[in-house]
Amino acid sequence: MYLCTGCQLRCQLTVTSEDGSVRGVQGNRCKRGLDLAHRRIKTPPGPFTLRLRVSHGSAARVTARARLPVTPDVAQAVAQAVRHLQFAAPIRVGDVLVQDAAGLGVELLAEQEVGLRATRPRRQTPDSTH
Question: Rounded to an integer, what distance in angstroms lies between the CA atom of residue 114 and that of residue 93?
Fold first, then answer.
């Protein structure tokens, strides 16, 4: 069972397959669900990483990865959903940055550390009383 990302309905699909081909799909409310079911059977899930924005960090972006492999259609939906998010430093390796990305149950974890941005000392201005 998986959540269809073909449209905004987000149907819960149950796919029956045999020998790499789809034998049946249940739960779809549109044709896109059928198409995605066929593509998912032919395209196995794989690792998914992306770069996310960081505020006040020693780096402008942090690399994140999905805890579990995802299919390309889910990866695309997740990337679209988190593209405007920004995370506050400090960030540690393994921190959960997003718990349920795009409502698809995808958890995004930090792959690298990002410390706080070093603050620059203030420039001293000449004393105006002299």
Answer: 9
Decide: 77 and 5 in contact? Cβ < 8 Å: yes
How far apart are alpha carbons 113 and 59 in whole angstroms?
9
- Take residue 2 and report the two structure tokens written for it: 């998986």
What is the model's pTM? Answer: 0.70
Which range of 65-74, 94-103, 117-126 scores highest in mean pLDDT? It is 94-103
Whole-Å CA distances, 34 to 18, 70, 74 = 16, 18, 15
Q: Which domains does the chain have, with CATH numbers?
A: 2-42 (no CATH), 49-110 (3.10.530.10)
pLDDT of residue 127 exceeding 70, the answer is: no
Q: Residue 40 is encoded by which pair of tokens?
A: 């998912």
Q: Is the pLDDT score of 39 beyond 90?
A: no
